[in-house]
């Protein structure tokens, strides 16, 4: 009654081919479908084919996510024990074009390539344009290239690729497109190398400097192989003293060269030179880079720093001072190197730190307390270090007290907290206590406030909103000593802080509460 209809569809669509009959319900009925002469196996081909209908008089076929391979003739066959009927439908599937064929390089120059190809199947939708892609040993995959004509229509099967690099091996492929989409690319063409040409790219980042006495060091970035444009690639290095007219030239017959050193006793230390670097290959010379100023190698500083002195800041820190040398022609100074070692150690095991620029003092940390140290200072530059200053000696201070404050107690008044603790006594090898640092903060905050005192007590405002976290630490000439364990003082409620009036028989005033003292040891935790 409803046979399947021929259809014209696009890749990716889903359709239903109907197949509905009337029959004697006393007879069993069987539907089968074949595609291009082969019976459809719904178990095996279930990704695309499915029987639908929901009643014994319908055997519709659903085709999901149609692909080009599903184009062809579909036959629905209906059988009973006494009869058999068939109906046929043709399915046309339109999709992106197939790959073009036989991409050929007909002619090639230093920057162009003439290509031709044959069209592939259009898959029932006319080709509207072609795109040409190229690949070289230096490219990341396939890249679209410029062509003449710029837009290649579907009726054109030849084009000229332009803008190629000389002396580079290329291969090409073609991609077709139609109204439905972009097709698969063709197979690559043969590989062909473009012809040679004069170099067109000069070296980048020409610079230099450093080296040894009487040397001029010149450096640059090498030109990539794909931009060398031919065989026999090399560099021409040109230089002259700043302000002179005659260039000195050196040819480096290596494509990998990136450095040249000119050595001559006439080269004065740290003298400016004008420098430029050019390129050439078998076809001739290419461009030079822009001219830059490069300085010859400098000599090490010839004078030691003067007026060396040092002082102890703590048990772990010292500070050293010096005066820079003022003599002319003593060599450019980039900074100073400080060498220091403990008296009980060997000088060859000394540690070193460096300063930069005109700095004439330095702090040295992480030292041992009550120890004698020797120090010497040298000026340095790119050529090396100069002569050493005279050695100076300094002894670090005694270490700070190792015993933390103990027997910490606190009590409250009507507006403050009073903290008290026992005096810390330094050992014989420790520096005397000069005072205490009391650090406190709210329990949920990171910011810490610090009070310094030379007494063994301190007053703090009442903690009304949050608990206090408090730590007490002695300090001395040797630095900060061992801190107490953190103690927590609970917050005071607003009503408690304001004082409660005697409104009930159990009420008491803040002044009465303030007579209660709570004692805490340093190891207590609240």
Automatic annotation (TrEMBL):
The keyword Magnesium does not apply. Residues 386-396 have a biased composition (Polar residues). PROSITE patterns: FN3 (PS50853), IG_LIKE (PS50835). Pfam families: fn3, Ig_3. Residues 99-197, 202-299, 304-399, 400-495 form the Fibronectin type-III domain. One of its GO terms (molecular function) is cell-cell adhesion mediator activity. It is found in: Cell membrane. Residues 1-86 form the Ig-like domain. Residues 184-209, 386-405 are annotated as: Disordered. Residues 187-196 have a biased composition (Basic and acidic residues). InterPro entries: FN3_dom, FN3_sf, Ig-like_dom, Ig-like_dom_sf, Ig-like_fold, Ig_sub, Ig_sub2. Gene3D superfamilies: Immunoglobulins (2.60.40.10). GO terms for biological process: axon guidance; brain development. GO terms for cellular component: axon; plasma membrane; side of membrane. Keywords: Cell adhesion, Cell membrane, Disulfide bond, Glycoprotein, GPI-anchor, Immunoglobulin domain, Lipoprotein, Membrane, Repeat, Signal. It is a lipid-anchor; GPI-anchor. Its main location: membrane. Interacts with PTPRG. This is Contactin 4.
